[in-house]
Write a structure and sequence with these properties.
With 262 residues, the chain is of the alpha/beta class. It folds into two domains: 165 residues; 65 residues. The strands form four sheets. It has a five-stranded mixed sheet with strand order 2-1-3-4-7, sandwiched between helices. Strands 10-12-11 form a three-stranded antiparallel sheet. A two-stranded antiparallel ribbon has the order 5-6. Helix 1 packs across helix 5, helix 4 crosses helix 6 and helix 8 packs across helix 9. 31% of the residues are buried. The mean pLDDT is 93.
Length: 262
């Protein structure tokens, strides 16, 4: 049977492509080109308009159309790869169940996967339990080929129903909480960014990078949206900037001597 593997994003696809090659598999692969854990999701038009206000990617909606066309034309098995602890992965799973309600869908869940790895000193250990497909190296992914399970009707209906709730809420962020995927306001990660800033100048890239690795943000948001929120904090006067705020590597930021109130 023909198999098309579908991943949340290009990073996950790169590792899985390597795994398929090493296994000598003729299966095909396509990444979902957008991360639906952030941005408007109430309508494609609203999302496209929002993209254009922030990013120099006018063809983003076009890439997504090509993705859906590829899936609609596929007459074999669709295998979705995801992790339940990643906002990107879990948004992807909900989106797929909602957009393809009548297609049989199979899935591989990498959540909690542990495999041997080598420390910098050369000793062997087990990696921490995985949260997202993009964090898994090709070898363990190769071992998971052929282990997909079909998503049952009740599970798919629950995913679709919950995604419809998130569509109506249409928050800027979707994050993984104890109850699964939930909406989060635009300022959800703002305090984490401020916590990694100081009253002395720091490169914006370092502030964003430290925030990205923090417990609050890890696997919940990418550097792109943390950068967007950092710029918003500068516009609010809660961060001071030296240099172009949109040049993350060159710009430096610091906390003001007294944070504005209100």
């Amino acid at each position: 049977m023909k198999v098309l593997h579908v991943t949340p994003g290009h990073s996950a696809a790169a590792s899985l492509r390597h795994a398929l090659r090493d296994a000598g598999s003729a299966d095909e692969l396509v990444p979902c080109p957008e991360d639906f854990s952030f941005g408007p999701i109430s309508s494609p038009a609203a999302r496209a308009a929002w993209w254009e206000t922030l990013f120099d990617e006018p063809d983003a909606p076009g890439f997504l159309r090509l993705f859906w066309q590829r899936l609609e034309a596929w007459d074999g098995r669709l295998v979705l790869w995801f992790g339940r602890s990643s906002a990107w992965d879990l948004s992807f799973l909900h989106l797929m169940a909602d957009t393809l309600p009548d297609r049989p869908l199979f899935a591989v869940d990498v959540t909690g996967l542990q495999y041997p790895s080598t420390r910098q000193d050369g000793t062997r250990t087990l990696c921490e339990p995985t949260s997202t497909v993009s964090s898994v190296v090709p070898g363990p992914l190769q071992d998971l080929l052929g282990t997909e399970r079909e998503l049952g009707q009740k599970e798919r209906a629950a995913l679709r129903s919950h995604w419809q709730v998130l569509l109506r809420e249409d928050a800027l962020f979707r994050v993984v909480g104890e109850a699964g995927l939930v909406s989060a306001p635009e300022d959800h990660f703002d305090q984490a960014l401020l916590d990694f800033a100081s009253t002395t100048w720091r490169k914006l890239a370092h502030v964003v990078g430290d925030t990205l690795a923090s417990e609050r943000a890890r696997f919940q948001v990418g550097d792109l949206m943390l950068h967007v929120r950092a710029v918003a904090l500068m516009e609010q006067g809660r961060l001071l900037a030296e240099g172009d705020p949109w040049d993350m590597r060159a710009c430096k930021v610091r906390l003001p001597d007294a944070l504005p109130t209100g």
